[in-house]
Predict the structure.
Amino acid sequence: MNFSNLTFSDHPLQDATMAKYNFQNSWRISVVSGPKDSGLYGDINQDTFEVGVYRPNGIMLEDVLTYQTPVQITSLMHLVEML
């Protein structure tokens, strides 16, 4: 699994996008991005994303990761797969 396997759809915020992925180990991630000053911590024009990682019980792991690149997200996805 890597960033290119994520399926993005429209985010409720105008001109923003989002993707969610549920891993086989019941962990999941949420990846979002929007235009500058949208309130999201990713800039769609800079190809950066805000990422939330959720435990199997639904509680977010720490805080969101801000301004992550597709390469960073792929690395994170590989780590989450190993949990």
The chain has one helix and five strands. The chain has one domain: 3-81. The beta strands are 9-10, 17-22, 28-33, 49-54, 65-68.
